[in-house]
Please model this.
Amino acid sequence: MLLSIILTQFMPNTAGAVIITPIALTTAQGMGIAPQAYVLGIAYALASAFLSPMAHPVNVLVMSPGGYRFSDYIRHGPHVTIILVLISNLIVLLLFPY
Model:
């Protein structure tokens, strides 16, 4: 998930999914874990692009009308991202227990 979050700050979500999904599927199969859990985790991570305004087109769209600055994303984005990662990990563990 961490790699997905980092990649999505610099590239579109779809490109990040294309890069990360085969890696996650191979890892899950090697560990004997349900690959759906890894793919769902990637989907959640790619959707949590709050660390910079360039991470998602919606961030850029609301930046000017909302009066946001680049520093606002850097200041508040990590908190939202951490909360979403924790919640998504709990959801994935509930859906796909080890």
User: Anything to note?
Assistant: Residues 48 and 81 are 6 Å apart (CA to CA). The longest helix spans residues 70-95. The chain has five helices and no strands. The chain has one domain: 2-95.
